[in-house]
Amino acid sequence: MEAFKSYRSWSFVSLFIVILFWVSTVHVEYAGARNITVGGNNGWHYGYNYSDWITKVGQVYVGDWLVFKYPAPTSNSMAHSVVQIQNKARFKKCNVGAAIKLAGPTQGTGNGFHFRLKRVRHYFFACGLGNTRHCTVGQMRFGILPVVKTG
Ligand SMILES: [Cu+2]
């Protein structure tokens, strides 16, 4: 009987932990989640100042989608990609070599590459091509900190 009781209380503890985990990791979304096209009508290309652009976007919320639009490369056009740089220090240095690859050169066509901002955290995006040049000289980089929308 004693063993049964402790078994029961342990299962409540585990259930509680599972619920805590779920609450902390669940993607908090709001009804009006938006598609935010990176660069607006400019899309994702070399030489546009995305750090400047993001300051004009205003607050971004958890659940919003970033949409990267760029054409597939041709013999006379540049290839681009989307990478997520892990932290601010690496972002400042455009350390794209060790970044997380999110989308390749052909994934920005059509409706574009969609990336959902699922958490409250700093996200750093860049183009990973051109041996860091697209990130540095080409200014294809920006940071973003979505917050949970309340009310
Ligand atoms: Cu590029």
Task: Explain this structure.
With 151 residues, this protein is α+β, with helices and mostly antiparallel strands. It has a single domain (28-144), classed as Cupredoxins -  blue copper proteins (Immunoglobulin-like). The protein has three helices and seven strands, in the order H-E-H-E-E-H-E-E-E-E. The strands form two sheets. It has a four-stranded antiparallel beta sheet with strand order 4-3-6-7. The termini are far apart. The mean pLDDT is 90.
Specify the structural class: alpha+beta
What is CATH's topology name? Immunoglobulin-like
Task: Indicate the CATH class.
Answer: Mainly Beta
Q: Into which percent range does the helicity of residues fall?
A: 10-25%
Q: Count of DSSP helices?
A: 3
Order of helices and strands: HEHEEHEEEE
What form results from the Cα inertia axes?
Answer: elongated
